[in-house]
Amino acid sequence: MGIHECSQMCINTKGSYWCACEQRYFQLLEDKRSCTPTSKEPLWLLFAHGQSVWNISSNGKNLHLQRSGVQKVAMIDFDYKEKRLYYVDIGSNVIERINLDGTSLQRIQDFEVDGVEGIAVDWVARNLYSVRRTDVIVQTLDGRYRKTLYRDVLRLPRALIVQPLIGKIYATDWSSSAFIAELNMDGSSFKKVITEGIVWPNALTVDLFAERIFWADAFLDSIQSVRFDGTARRTVISDSHSVPHVFGLTVAGDDLYWTDWSYRGILRANKLTGDNITVLAQTALLPYSIKAYHPSLQPEGGEACEKANCSQLCLVTPEGGAQCECSQGFHLEEDARSCRSSCSQSQFICGGSSPRCISRLFLCDGIRQCDDQADEMNCPPRFCLVGQFQCHDSSKCLDASSVCDGALDCNDLSDEKYCSSLP
């Protein structure tokens, strides 16, 4: 049979085949090949539009402003469970999240955002993955715990997607030797799955139930797909008029949706044949990332992370299990669940890509010691000069030479409290 005959699963029989759908979320239509969601909730498309994020109905007839007041948003994703939008504002160098009803704006990262090229929500283990320069990073959805999962595996990353139900990450790299990589979400494996016939893989999406990866190449002016195992590669669209410069790509049901810079618009086509190309909307500014929003696109996972009871990060494995990990600067205890700081009690742990321990004497001294600025956050009002030590009860300002000199100068003794942590 042709690989494109079934919308989702193809079950081979002797001399024939039949099509099937993921029964939790879809049902087979009368044509015996197409799958339709059982949920009556309409499909929406979220897309980044530079200084705003919008949502649009799948037929292009309804358009709503989702988020404004940002400088330049290019990468987005969503969490259906908590009805939240996640985005990277590369103009302000922040990663933020906001409820889809416009409430509860939260900043989850304001350091090391420069160079981020893609984000992806792990809706099962409740993590946010990102690619930054050569690295792949994972952090909890609130940004509290963060770990560099893969170092120096990429050169010029462009797109990122995760599928926690199979424990896989997919990323594109459009360096001189462009490729698409498959990575385990627990950090255990990295391999290149597409290395030939690829130049500028701008956009990437995964069809979980059809077990296919789709990508758009902005140099070759094409949209292609391949099975998870690397077989049955095929070209869906190869037409410089239809796909002259794709930036974002998403799949839902039998359709592909993408943003295109040449059209300055959002387009749709059949994912199996590439037919019925339709311009849904045109935009004033360049459109960036696009995500189809529907409950069937983030199906419920197992309870592995709930059972693992990790103290910091829980990562899903390809086998459907869970693995506890610790944020940078912490080590996993023997119980394989708890995390222990590498710093002493008289030290403070700096986060960021280069975690280290600093003396608590340096906290809130007006001089940033940590890459993530954590040593200067949540500080009391400061009235001493930069470089001076402010007693913790705010009673005095001391020169650096008066700290840890054996003399108790502060009323609360804070100038001699953490001296053992000094190098």
UniProtKB/TrEMBL annotation:
Cellular compartments per GO CC: plasma membrane
Ranges of the LDL-receptor class B repeats in the UniProt entry: 83-125, 167-210, 211-253
SUPFAM superfamilies documented for this protein: Growth factor receptor domain, LDL receptor-like module, YWTD domain
Entry's Gene Ontology molecular function annotations: Wnt receptor activity; Wnt-protein binding
Cysteine pairings via disulfide bonds: C364-C379, C404-C419
Domain EGF-like: start-end pairs: 5-36, 304-340
Subcellular location: Membrane
GO BP annotations, alphabetical order: canonical Wnt signaling pathway; endocytosis
InterPro entries linked: 6-blade_b-propeller_TolB-like, Cueball_EGF_LRP_Nidogen, EGF, Growth_fac_rcpt_cys_sf, LDL_receptor-like_sf, LDLR_class-A_CS, LDLR_classB_rpt, LDrepeatLR_classA_rpt
PROSITE patterns the UniProt entry points to: LDLRA_1, LDLRA_2, LDLRB
Keywords assigned by UniProt, alphabetized: Disulfide bond, EGF-like domain, Endocytosis, Glycoprotein, Lipoprotein, Membrane, Receptor, Repeat, Signal
Topology relative to the membrane: Single-pass membrane protein
PANTHER family xrefs: EGF-LIKE DOMAIN-CONTAINING PROTEIN (PTHR46513:SF13), VITELLOGENIN RECEPTOR-LIKE PROTEIN-RELATED-RELATED (PTHR46513)
Stated name of the protein: Low-density lipoprotein receptor-related protein 1
Gene: LRP1
